Amino acid sequence: DGYSHLSAYERKRLKNITENAKFFAALKLHESAARLNQLTTKRQSHVTKRAKPKKAEDEPARRRSMRLLRVEPQDVPLLESFSPAVVEQYPQVPVGPLPMVPEDQAENSKWTEAILSTWMRISELKAEDAEKGTPDIKRYQKSLSSMVLSEENIRKVVKARVCSMAIHPSESTILVAAGDKWGHVGLWNVSCGTEEGAHIFIPHSLQVNCMHFSPCNPAHLLSLSNDTLRCGDVTKAVFDEICRSEDTFSCFDFLEESACTAIVSHWGGDVAVVDRRTPGLSSELSVDIGFTRTRTVHVHPVNKHYFLAAGSVDVCVFDVRYLKAKGNKPLSSLTGHTKSVASAYFSPVTGSRVVTVCADDKLRHNNNTGRWLTRFRAIWDPKQEHCFLVGSMAQPRQIQLFQDTGNLLHSFCNVELLSSVCSINVVHPRQNILVGGNSSGRLHVFKDKC
Q: Could you read off the pLDDT of 209-260 as tens digits, one per residue?
């Protein structure tokens, strides 16, 4: 009667339990009977037992981050096993001018002298001013098909991931500079054709984010790392320091053909105006443009007072003449990006077009490189107003060339010789020469067949 609130099924079940308890009690199984009697009077509490902690010796070996160990991914397929690379330690580069002495000076001084003298010689030759134009697309596409990659035009030029590149404008000699994530700058005389054609210099302590040969004096190579902007002057054999900042640098571009002034961006979002003619290592003006992050800046090819800034989801055009410390408004904003923007550049002839790379994979282009590869930057071919190049995650590995309409015009590939992703690329301003850099410090040069 005391269980009238229970359902018929529960009362029947309770009756069975009680009868079983009496039966076991008659068998003098006291412990079982006591347990069953307990079930008839109260419900059993549900207690969750805590799992015993695993002993340290039972746990598998924890994976160590190769990135934190400063070990670069090798230029081999991921499924292929290889012994871990040896982590090298490099001293901090001091402030101020540095002699242009390569890492291997003691062993290869005559070869070093050869590459520096070549750089100086080709910088003294004045190239004829070729009129910028836009060649016929069919004729241009045919010329692309003649560019090939050969084994002698592949070389490991720097020791770590390629983060920036520049190509000398000389038409007689192919000289390429590459900067890596450890502050190294490699110079490679591709035309030399020997193992002694490449040498490594250490003008920076941190990642080299951007490089340019001076447009008015190609004997000057300017390189920007996280903390400093330097000018490698081969005529003086010195890496001069132009600007230094505690706010991390990300990119720079010249504001005039004389290359005396430059616009420099910071990862934190600000930009700065730098004048090489003024003494000291500070910028002339530091500017808040309202960005939370600025990855690239690029000056308009015709109207040099306009520059393009890109970062986060922002791509905006500013006028350097009206910049002030705070409260700057863009002249124009290119909207539509939904994820992080890696780069933005004006087209080379008129500047009427802008090509951007964004993690939202527009153009149906797979550009999500992950943390082990340098982020892609789409660059215009300086010889063609309507075409740009960008690395690709596609297999087989390739560098793709698009029209501004989004049409894929050509893919630079070689199944046997190109097996890695070329995130950073540079194109010669007058000749059919393309250089692609990968994440192991290796450069690949596509050029016309000899």
A: 999 999 999 999 999 999 999 999 999 999 999 999 988 999 999 999 999 9
Of 166, 167, 161, nearest in space to 184 by CA: 161
Token output for 128: 């004829």
Answer whether residue 212 is part of any domain.
Answer: yes
Decide if 403 contacts 387 (C-beta within 8 A).
yes
**Residues in a beta bridge with 402:** 388, 408
Quick check: is 1 in a domain? no
Q: Which long-range contacts (CB under 8 A, 24 or more apart) does 230-235 make?
A: 230/98, 230/203, 230/204, 231/276, 232/100, 232/185, 232/201, 232/203, 233/100, 234/100, 234/116, 234/119, 234/120, 234/123, 235/120
Domain tally for the chain?
A: 1
Query: pLDDT, tens digit, for every residue of 127-183?
Result: 665 556 677 888 999 999 999 999 999 999 999 999 999 999 999 999 999 999 999
Is the pTM of the predicted complex or chain greater than 0.85? Answer: no
Q: Is 33 within the bounds of a domain?
A: no
Domain that holds residue 270: 98-125+136-448
Residue 90 maps to a domain? no
Separation CA 353–CA 206 (nearest Å): 33
Strand (E) or helix (H) holding 333: strand 332-333
Q: What is the CATH number of the domain that holds 212?
A: 2.130.10.10
